[in-house]
């Protein structure tokens, strides 16, 4: 028989959404839909009102990431998972080296392995709970890894592989759950790409990339090469980075985007920049993550899954529970009390909690969550 536990209202977070993606959407973003949506929803994305919205997103992200000279903000349809295939078609010349240390960092490498016009990728693997950046690899023209492995709560540095510049190799960083939550110097990479359903508090189905001049030049040169007679490379229009670049320069996307996603994204960017930009956002996430790690370390039944302090993510926190405590029962009890999306990544298969601490999440609500977990565990 499953025991029912009711958490007192006084202990509960004011907002109990802790998803690792989709993540919490702020009420101000919903109001923005109501206020701006009447003029924008259901209208053409190629007309001035929506293009002005896209322009504000590109400009706001340029400010947020302190865009280096020559770098551009580019948007496209399909989410970050679509960008993996797009990069195979439009950014990797012949051979890429990958860091693989969780479900999501492995998937990009799998896409490259399936591309018939690319050489087999070189994969540098690490066990979940740690990371491995690819090493200098002969004949590689792209180095790829995830800044934040969403499945395990591991954060990896963003820096160019030594010797990669002499190769004229690109550095491609999957920042889906890292962008806006973790510090970054985008000059250290050529494509820093993400979806807006994490730190940027919007819905999925859109990808955003910070592209260097080298990445833009590569996209154009591969597009030209694909047109040559006998070329094995196939770049369908949906996976053409050149097309995405040219459309973004017109403040639009190739295909019709979800306008609601754009409205919520624009509001979130304005909120982040208005509060202090990347420095403020990353400090806020670090505060929330620190609360969880300190609580777990002091607990007699919980512990951080990632052992190395420097590797622990400040975007997605993973906490192992003692085997005597059934994490599934804890998670179900929390959900029964309206505290949602604390489950560990299913394929990891651990007795674990996984908690998104993106900037929209109030640090005080993270503190309240720890008290709620303690309350539940004591009574199960």
Keywords:
Aspartate Aminotransferase, domain 2, PyrdxlP-dep_Trfase_major, aminotransferase, 380 residues, three-stranded antiparallel sheet, alpha/beta, Aspartate Aminotransferase, domain 1, 11 helices
Structural write-up:
- With 380 residues, the chain is α/β, with parallel strands linked by helices.
- The protein has two domains: 118 residues, Aspartate Aminotransferase, domain 1; 247 residues, Type I PLP-dependent aspartate aminotransferase-like (Major domain) (Aspartate Aminotransferase, domain 2).
- It has eleven helices and twelve strands.
- It has a seven-stranded mixed beta sheet, sandwiched between helices.
- Helix 3 packs parallel to helix 4, helix 8 crosses helix 9 and helix 9 packs parallel to helix 11.
- The longest helix is centred in the last third of the chain and has 22 residues.
- It is globular and about 70 Å long.
- The N and C termini lie close together (11 Å).
- The model has no long low-confidence stretch (mean pLDDT 96).
- Catalyzes the reversible conversion of 3-phosphohydroxypyruvate to phosphoserine and of 3-hydroxy-2-oxo-4-phosphonooxybutanoate to phosphohydroxythreonine.
- Keywords: Amino-acid biosynthesis, Aminotransferase, Cytoplasm, Pyridoxal phosphate, Pyridoxine biosynthesis, Serine biosynthesis, Transferase.
- Its EC number is 2.6.1.52.
- Pathway: Cofactor biosynthesis; pyridoxine 5'-phosphate biosynthesis; pyridoxine 5'-phosphate from D-erythrose 4-phosphate: step 3/5; Amino-acid biosynthesis; L-serine biosynthesis; L-serine from 3-phospho-D-glycerate: step 2/3.
């Amino acid at each position: 028989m499953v025991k029912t536990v009711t958490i007192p209202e006084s202990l509960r977070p004011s907002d109990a959404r802790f998803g690792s993606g989709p993540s919490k959407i702020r009420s101000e973003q919903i109001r923005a839909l109501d206020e701006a949506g009447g003029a924008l929803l259901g209208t053409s994305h190629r007309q001035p009102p929506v293009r002005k919205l896209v322009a504000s997103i590109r400009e706001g992200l340029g400010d947020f990431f302190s865009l280096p000279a020559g770098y551009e903000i580019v948007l496209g349809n399909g989410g970050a998972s679509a960008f993996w295939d797009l990069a195979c078609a439009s950014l990797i010349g012949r051979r890429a080296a990958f860091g693989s240390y969780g479900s999501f960092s492995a998937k990009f490498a799998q896409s490259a392995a399936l591309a018939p016009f690319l050489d087999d990728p070189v994969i540098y693997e690490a066990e979940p709970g740690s990371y491995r950046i690819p090493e200098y690899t002969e004949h590689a023209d792209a180095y790829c890894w995830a800044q934040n492995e969403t499945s395990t709560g591991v954060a990896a540095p963003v820096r160019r592989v030594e010797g990669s510049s002499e190769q004229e190799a690109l550095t491609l960083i999957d920042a889906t759950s890292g962008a806006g939550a973790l510090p970054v110097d985008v000059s250290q990479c050529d494509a820093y790409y993400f979806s807006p359903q994490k730190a940027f508090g919007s819905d999925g189905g859109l990808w955003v990339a910070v592209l260097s001049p080298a990445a833009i030049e590569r996209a154009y040169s591969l597009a030209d090469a694909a047109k040559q007679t006998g070329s094995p490379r196939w770049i369908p229009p949906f996976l053409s980075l050149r097309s995405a670049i040219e459309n973004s320069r017109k403040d639009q996307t190739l295909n019709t985007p979800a306008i609601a996603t754009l409205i919520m994204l624009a509001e979130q960017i304005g909120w982040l920049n208005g509060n202090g930009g990347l420095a403020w956002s990353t400090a806020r996430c670090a505060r929330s993550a620190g609360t969880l790690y300190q609580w777990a370390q002091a607990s007699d039944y919980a512990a951080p899954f990632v052992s190395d302090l420097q590797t622990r993510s400040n975007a997605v926190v993973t906490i192992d529970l003692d085997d005597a405590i059934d994490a599934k029962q804890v998670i179900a009890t929390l959900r029964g009390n309206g505290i949602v999306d604390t489950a560990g990544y299913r394929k990891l298969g651990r007795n674990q909690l996984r908690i998104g601490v993106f900037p929209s999440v109030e640090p005080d609500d993270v503190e309240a969550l720890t008290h709620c977990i303690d309350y539940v565990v004591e009574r199960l």
